[in-house]
Write a structure and sequence with these properties.
The complex is a heterodimer of chains A (260) and B (487).
Chain A: E1 3-12, E2 15-25, E3 30-34, H1 41-49, E4 55-62, E5 65-66, H2 72-77, E6 80-83, E7 90-94, H3 95-109, H4 117-130, H5 136-139, E8 141-142, H6 148-162, E9 166-170, H7 178-190, E10 197-202, H8 206-210, E11 215-220, E12 223-228, H9 230-251
Parallel strand pairs in A: 3-10, 3-11, 6-9, 9-10
Antiparallel strand pairs in A: 1-2, 1-4, 4-5, 7-8, 11-12
Chain B: H1 12-18, E1 32-34, H2 41-50, H3 55-69, E2 93-95, H4 109-117, H5 122-129, E3 132-137, E4 140-144, H6 147-152, E5 156-159, H7 160-166, H8 168-174, H9 185-193, E6 196-202, E7 212-217, E8 227-233, E9 238-246, E10 254-256, E11 259-264, E12 269-277, E13 289-299, E14 305-312, E15 317-320, E16 323-326, E17 332-341, E18 346-349, E19 352-355, E20 361-370, E21 375-384, E22 392-401, E23 407-416, E24 422-431, H10 434-442, H11 447-463, H12 468-482
Parallel strand pairs in B: 3-7, 6-8, 7-9, 8-11, 9-12, 10-13, 11-13, 12-14, 13-15, 13-16, 14-17, 15-18, 16-19, 17-20, 18-21, 19-21, 20-22, 21-23, 22-24
Antiparallel strand pairs in B: 1-2, 3-4, 5-6
Helix pairs in contact in B: 2-3, 3-9, 7-8, 10-11, 11-12
The chains are: A alpha/beta (260), B alpha/beta (487).
């Protein structure tokens, strides 16, 4: 098993957001997490990458390591990647330079040799095709002046370059038109592989038409309240999250296990 | 490196770095010839006599001194410091050369050692970089290089004292022509007591074949330094001048009140770049240098151009407004600045652009970075006189705050007396985002590297104006100064 989350709680400034999340993810699997606003989906992503400011309890075991004990950069070095919901702009720092610095930091932490500018450029150019990005993006500052869709493609490009073992996609579909969604989804699908697990956080089942998950989990009020296969997403689309909450009250005093 | 998550966002490692000592904080033991403490006419006469100056210069100094006695130190700056006792300063100190110097090899070994510690070995400089170095230790020039090569094209680059001896007419003609001694308190003090500095003259039509560079150091204890720099670019000439400095640790605040005057005639260009790294004081702000400097250029001729680029990371207090008087028609003035204040540093800096000629153009780009308890003020004056038809100014002031205890302030003054003038001002203040830091760290970039990357990105517009080798040095300096500033 690649990732095992047990009884994960998180609160920020006395506000409890995660109330005992349990989740297991195997290499090669793509799981989707759905749920209404405020259910804790993005907080789960934040806690997994080590965003500061949360009081966290419970455990997260990632490839046998205690993930919660690692700094954000060490988690990255261990292969954890987040495609941010709102990628931040870094003025004056070139996109290409940023990605090379990131890749070489990871390689250094893993004891691998760094890539020089020429080799990196070749790698970047190859991966850019995946998300249909052209060279002009690479000369610009990180995310600066990028449209919503360009930012999301830039996230997937970084994923393609950094080749994480465990990738979290936080609302990667939000704000995308159908064409951009297709480009992003194609990129993600191309990166599905046996050794890689993905957690796709989304609001809409629309994305799951393109990125077909192995499992779907529904989050409400800080817990995973239902888990199922692809059909669960369709059911959600038809009945909405409201019904889900009721179900939780009636049938789930303890959270439903999330494994197959 | 595992940094446990905290709610404050400051890891232990970062805290440790915050308390790091100033890298260049050493004192060289030179055999120094010093004047008694205090300021009076006798001291000024002593300085003038030691330097074998002509009478007119002594007279000028004395006039300045008399005027200075009528002045009081300015208080309008957004900085605070205790009163300076001007009678407790040594106004003249000269390292005694061990023998007459005929080549670089004979430069005082201790002086050379000091430059080695700074990573600027003179011998190496001469061989490798093609940069002529006029090294100033305390108040007297001890080594000047590349003179012959420059002399071939008629460029004069020497210490101010030498210029007074060898080119008195030029000095007399231009000294005080851009910054008169009546200009301000510190410029006036400088006029009375300056001991040395650099002089540079580029003849008509000559493009100076190398970048001219001066490294300053304050060395003898309690010695205020009062340099004077004068650069004259004749018609159609070009010169790029680099000034860089570091200073050793001191327990008492050191006053540094320099004056720099630039004169550009028709079609001439002067590019003046500074990397300033005076000792900023310890974590409590004790012992840093007071850097109160008057720098001004006179774009006297048609189509002349003067550019100031500065990277200010040092000093306890920085107080300077490099400016340009745009007198010639179509003349251009530029000011690109990065000012960093960390620890308890204070900076009140900016630029002054005075448009007099027609179609004159000025650009001000100011990047202020505040960290720790640093206070950073941009103060700028753009004046468009009645005669300045079609004048244009663009000003951009960006501030970056790192942490919660620092501050950034902006005071832009604009005086437009000609309705055809165009003045644009843009300003922004941003906090170094925890979001930006997290983004970088999530990609695997360690926190410190991420901070320096974000800050360097913020400063890129200014760094790219610096000559290449200087840009690299500036970037390094910024990284060193920023170490441990996160949180």
């Amino acid at each position: 098993m690649m990732l095992k989350i047990e009884n994960l709680h998180a609160s920020i400034e006395d506000k409890t957001i995660l109330r005992g999340v349990n989740l297991e993810l195997n290499a090669g699997e793509v799981h989707a997490i759905m749920g209404p606003n405020g259910s804790g989906k993005s907080t789960l992503a934040s806690v997994l990458i080590g965003r500061e400011g949360y009081d966290v309890s419970g455990s997260v075991s990632y490839q046998g390591q205690d993930l919660l004990a690692l700094s954000p950069e060490d988690r990255a070095a261990a292969g954890v990647f987040l495609a941010f919901q709102h990628p931040v702009e870094i003025p004056g720092v070139g996109n290409l330079y940023f990605m090379r610095t990131a890749l070489n930091s990871l390689r250094r932490q893993r004891g691998q040799e760094e890539l020089d500018a020429v080799d990196f450029l070749a790698l970047a150019q190859e991966r850019m095709k995946l998300v249909e990005m052209d060279q002009t993006f690479m000369g610009r500052s990180v995310n600066e002046g990028f449209s919503g869709g360009e930012k999301k493609r830039n996230e997937i490009l970084q994923m393609a370059i950094l080749e994480p073992t465990f990738a979290i996609l936080d609302e990667t579909d939000s704000g995308l038109d159908i064409d951009a969604l297709r480009v992003v989804a194609n990129g993600v699908n191309a990166l599905r592989s046996e050794g890689r697990a993905m957690l796709v956080i989304t609001h809409h089942q629309r994305l799951l038409d393109y990125i077909v998950p192995d499992r779907v989990h529904v989050m409400a009020a800080g817990q995973i309240v239902r888990s199922g296969d692809r059909d669960l997403a369709v059911e959600l689309e038809e009945h909405g999250y409201a019904g889900m909450g009721q179900q939780r009250n009636s049938e789930a005093p303890t959270p439903v296990g999330a494994t197959r | 490196m595992s940094a446990p998550a905290t709610t404050t966002g400051i890891s232990d490692e970062v805290r440790q770095l915050a308390n790091q000592e100033y890298q260049y904080g050493f004192v060289t033991d030179l055999d120094t010839d010093v004047a008694p403490r205090g300021l009076n006419e006798d001291i000024i006469r002593l300085i003038s006599t030691r330097k074998n100056e002509p009478d007119w210069l002594l007279e000028w100094r004395l006039e300045a001194y008399q005027h200075w006695l009528t002045l009081t130190a300015p208080t309008w700056q957004h900085v605070s410091y205790g009163p300076i006792d001007y009678q407790d300063i040594i106004y003249y100190a000269a390292p005694k050369p061990k023998k007459q110097l005929t080549s670089m090899d004979e430069v005082d070994p201790e002086v050379r050692e000091m430059f080695n510690k700074l990573g600027i070995s003179l011998g190496e400089q001469e061989r490798l970089s093609g940069v002529a170095v006029d090294a100033i230790v305390d108040s007297v020039s001890v080594a000047t290089t590349f003179k012959e090569k420059l002399a071939d094209v008629g460029v004069i680059f020497c210490s101010f004292s030498e210029a007074v001896q060898n080119h008195p007419d030029l000095v007399r003609r231009y000294l005080g022509s851009v910054v008169p001694y009546k200009d301000n308190f510190f410029a006036c003090l400088n006029a009375a007591v300056f001991t040395d500095g650099s002089f540079c003259y580029i003849p008509k039509g000559v493009r100076c074949p190398m970048e001219l560079s001066t490294y300053f150091r304050i060395n003898a204890a309690d010695t205020g330094q009062f340099e004077r720099t004068l650069i004259i670019a004749e018609e159609g000439s070009y010169v790029s001048y680099l000034e860089g400095c570091t200073a050793p640790v001191r327990d008492q605040n050191q006053l540094h009140a320099a004056v720099v005057e630039l004169v550009a005639l028709d079609d001439a260009q002067i590019k003046y770049s500074t990397v300033q790294n005076w000792y900023p004081g310890d974590a409590e702000g004790k012992g840093g240098v007071y850097n109160f400097v008057t720098k001004r250029g006179l774009a006297a001729g048609r189509n002349s151009k003067i550019s100031w680029t500065q990277v200010e990371t040092g000093s306890a207090i920085t107080w300077k407004y490099p400016g340009v008087i745009l007198k010639g028609d179509n003349s251009v003035g530029e000011f690109y600045s990065v000012a960093l204040t960390a620890r308890r540093q204070q900076a009140d800096t900016g630029s002054k652009m005075v448009h007099i000629g027609k179609n004159t153009k000025s650009t001000i780009v100011s990047k202020a970075i505040s960290a720790g308890h640093g206070q950073n003020t941009y103060r700028g004056l753009v004046g468009i006189r009645r005669s300045a038809v079609g004048a244009r100014n663009f000003t951009q002031c960006d501030s970056l705050l790192i942490g919660k205890d620092c501050g950034a302030h902006t005071f832009p003054y604009v005086e437009v007396k000609n309705s055809t003038g165009q003045v644009e001002h843009e300003a922004s203040t941003s906090k170094i985002g925890e979001e930006q830091l997290l983004y970088c760290r999530q990609r695997g970039i360690p926190e410190e590297e991420a901070v320096s990357m974000i800050v360097n990105g913020f400063c890129r517009e200014v760094f790219k104006m610096l000559p290449m080798e200087f840009a690299v040095e500036a970037q390094k300096l910024l990284n060193v100064s920023l170490e441990g500033s996160v949180g």
